[in-house]
Amino acid sequence: MFELFRSTALVASTLTTGLIAGLFYAFSCAVMLGLGRTDDRTFVSAMQWINVKILNGWFLIPFMGALALIALAGALHLRGDGRSVLPWIVAALVLYGMTFAITAAVNVPLNNQLAAAGEPDGITDLAAVREAFEATWNRWNLIRALTSTAAFGCLVWALVLHGGITSSGA
């Protein structure tokens, strides 16, 4: 039963981390590139609405849950045969922790700053609002896409190692 719980935590942490890595990757290679081609009003309006609509369970549960699930998977691999997997889980925890910290310290404050600018029709200098947001948000989103993808890769490798341990009967 313990092995099932340990395996489930590792699979769940990998899945949630992969979902978030994919989201940040999609923003970097598609969403922001597309919005980058729009006029200032469209850009500001679209990002304001994206920032409102992303705050839902489909995003928040994996985003916050990944950190807790990686930590749980690490705790469950502290003993015995799970220790060979532990360095990869710890690396994933550090990398995803960086993703979480970047989001909290950079991207969310920029989102809040964009919201505080007000409705696009009432903003007198849309270009300045966009300029204060876009390049910094994109740069840090790319970094969090990289850190979350690296965390996902570490967890995938941990799953490979974990599968080798459980299939050998250890």
From TrEMBL:
<feature type="transmembrane region" description="Helical">
    <location>
        <begin position="55"/>
        <end position="78"/>
    </location>
</feature>
<dbReference type="InterPro" id="IPR013901">
    <property type="entry name" value="Anthrone_oxy"/>
</dbReference>
<keyword id="KW-0812">Transmembrane</keyword>
<feature type="transmembrane region" description="Helical">
    <location>
        <begin position="85"/>
        <end position="106"/>
    </location>
</feature>
<feature type="transmembrane region" description="Helical">
    <location>
        <begin position="12"/>
        <end position="35"/>
    </location>
</feature>
<feature type="transmembrane region" description="Helical">
    <location>
        <begin position="142"/>
        <end position="161"/>
    </location>
</feature>
<dbReference type="Pfam" id="PF08592">
    <property type="entry name" value="Anthrone_oxy"/>
</dbReference>
<protein>
    <recommendedName>
        <fullName>DUF1772 domain-containing protein</fullName>
    </recommendedName>
</protein>
<keyword id="KW-1133">Transmembrane helix</keyword>
<keyword id="KW-0472">Membrane</keyword>
